[in-house]
């Protein structure tokens, strides 16, 4: 780890004023500290924002607002979340270990960096870490990598389970900067890699995530998160599915579906959502509706199983909701 200065701003304004080139915000630290130890990132100034008033889990316009500094474990156990949006609680519970969930924050989780081994190994080239140096994953070890939204410059998967569930629910993030605040749909917040994979999101220099807002969606009570991984605990998704359905008289009137583990960002599947409408809650209907879930996929040498696994994962989530 390289030397750095440390400060603990006492207000959001002070934190934003101190932020600049070479600085990084420290929240739970479960991602930043790891990457600093590996020297994947080497900020000159670390701004500890753990004491800032960016907390709270409260009703907002029929939905819920979650402060960016809330701990993952606290959000997963909160009655507002477990009752109205079980998909969020399940995605959080299946993220990392209990110890990490007790430390990691909501904002930090949404901004965590990819788990691609090439990105985390400073001896290897990586376009995310060193733009223009190349992407060894394209021809190398790529079993866990993305098949949707990839480019010749990057095939790294987005790591956040929470982000997948929030994208399915049309959540927005409130970003705070020196010029004020702005709200961005989470689905629009993450960028595709194209030729600039080091530009991962829409954060402007010096901005931070202040809160997450999930809109009112009464039928999201019927929602779930299914995560397929190599081991049951402390493992990132090979595929995952966040699903919510509105069922009336046994027929699907509305659906929300997003996938993780397969895309370079959380992957919303509107075509699957449309295909589900008007169908009954049967396995045959689910298999038909999810047939095009991986349309446009570009499998690499070792992850050709992912499109099929994605379809099966979505069907499994729907069957879980069907009871």
UniProtKB/TrEMBL annotation:
One of its GO terms (molecular function) is FAD binding. It comes from the Bacteria. SUPFAM superfamilies: CO dehydrogenase flavoprotein C-terminal domain-like, FAD-binding/transporter-associated domain-like. Residues 1-219 form the FAD-binding PCMH-type domain. Gene3D superfamilies: 3.30.465.10, CO dehydrogenase flavoprotein, C-terminal domain (3.30.390.50), Uridine Diphospho-n-acetylenolpyruvylglucosamine Reductase, domain 2 (3.30.43.10). The keyword Phosphoprotein does not apply. Keywords: Oxidoreductase. The keyword Protein biosynthesis does not apply. PANTHER family: OXIDOREDUCTASE (PTHR42659:SF1), XANTHINE DEHYDROGENASE SUBUNIT C-RELATED (PTHR42659). This is Xanthine dehydrogenase family protein subunit M. The lineage of its organism: Bacteria, Bacillati, Actinomycetota, Actinomycetes, Streptosporangiales.
């Amino acid at each position: 780890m390289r030397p750095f200065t440390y400060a603990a701003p006492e207000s959001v304004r002070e934190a934003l004023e101190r932020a600049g080139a070479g600085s990084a915000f420290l929240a739970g630290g479960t991602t930043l500290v790891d990457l600093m130890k590996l020297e994947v990132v080497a900020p000159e100034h670390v701004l500890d924002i753990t004491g800032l008033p960016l907390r709270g889990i409260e009703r907002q316009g029929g939905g819920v607002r979650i402060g960016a500094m809330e701990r993952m474990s606290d959000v997963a156990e909160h009655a507002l979340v477990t009752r109205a949006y079980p998909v969020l609680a399940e995605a959080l519970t299946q993220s990392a270990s209990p110890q990490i969930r007790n430390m990691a924050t909501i904002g930090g989780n949404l901004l965590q960096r990819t788990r691609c081994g090439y990105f985390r190994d400073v001896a290897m080239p990586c376009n995310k870490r060193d733009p223009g140096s190349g992407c060894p994953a394209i021809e190398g070890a790529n079993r866990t990598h993305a098949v949707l939204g990839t480019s010749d410059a990057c095939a790294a998967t987005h790591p956040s389970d929470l982000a997948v569930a929030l994208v399915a629910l049309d959540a927005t993030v409130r970003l705070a900067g020196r010029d004020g605040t702005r709200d961005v749909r989470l689905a629009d917040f993450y960028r595709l890699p194209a030729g600039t994979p080091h530009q991962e999101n829409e954060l402007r220099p010096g901005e931070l995530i202040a809160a997450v807002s999930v809109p009112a969606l009464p039928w999201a009570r019927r929602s779930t998160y299914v995560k397929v991984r190599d081991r049951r605990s402390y493992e990132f998704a090979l595929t995952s599915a966040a699903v919510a359905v509105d069922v009336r008289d046994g027929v699907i009137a509305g659906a929300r579906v997003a996938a993780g583990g397969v895309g370079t960002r959380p992957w919303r599947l509107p075509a699957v959502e449309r295909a589900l409408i008007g169908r009954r809650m049967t396995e045959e209907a689910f298999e038909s509706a999810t047939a095009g879930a991986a349309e446009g996929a570009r499998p690499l040498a070792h992850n050709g199983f992912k499109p099929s696994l994605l379809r099966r994962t979505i069907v499994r989530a729907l069957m879980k909701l069907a009871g």
